[in-house]
Amino acid sequence: MELKDYLRVARRRWRIIVLITLIAGALATAYVEVSTKQYTSSATVFISTVPSQDAQDNSAYQGSQFSLQRVASYADVVTGDGLAERVINQLGLTMTPAALASKISATNTTNTVLLVISVTDPNPVQAQRINAAVVQQLQLVVGELETPPGGNTPQLKASTINPPTLPT
Asked: What DSSP character marks residue 166?
């Protein structure tokens, strides 16, 4: 078949082509209108070492490398059921840890100690509220995990750089 053959078929069947296009457009519009809107709140956390009293000249570099190695692990902690359960208990939510964990994501840009935490929910205020609790619980977990046995000062800390946003 050549191009003129296709054009001839299109001229003969133009009503069906237009009708199918209109139906597809109407279905797409209806789907967008009835689907639940989702809002995403984001926060940025900076994972850093806590300087010790007996710091040496190269301790800043070593601390930076230590933080880089740990930040990817904390991205996994943020999206895990353990942290989600702590957030559920803190906020009194009525959902399973797996359901809450599915709303949470954490990304770490390569070779940085920044962790971007995002929470998606149909309610923008709830997304921000959950995100704030996730950041707070992460800070507590980092403190617990990074404190050596018998010590009282953690080796790492999680500091909020950008607080959870209220999505619009």
From this structure: -
Nearest to 131 by CA among 112, 98, 105: 105
Of 111, 125, 112, 116, residue with least CA distance to 160: 116
pLDDT tens sequence across 103-151: 999 998 878 889 999 999 999 999 999 999 999 999 999 999 888 888 8
Helix, strand, coil percent content, the chain, rounded in steps of 5: 55, 20, 30
- Cα separation of 157 and 165, whole Å? 21
State the virtual CA torsion across 164, 166, 167, 168 in degrees, nearest 10: -160
Q: Classify residue 5 as left (phi > 0), alpha (psi -120 to 50) or beta.
A: alpha
Beta strands in the chain (DSSP E): 39-49, 104-108, 114-121, 156-162
Residue tagged 């803190």 (tokens): 90
Q: At what angle do helices 124-145 and 59-78 cross, to 10 degrees?
A: 130
Strands (E), 33-167: 39-49, 104-108, 114-121, 156-162
Are the C-beta atoms of residues 119 and 41 closer than 8 Å to each other? Answer: yes
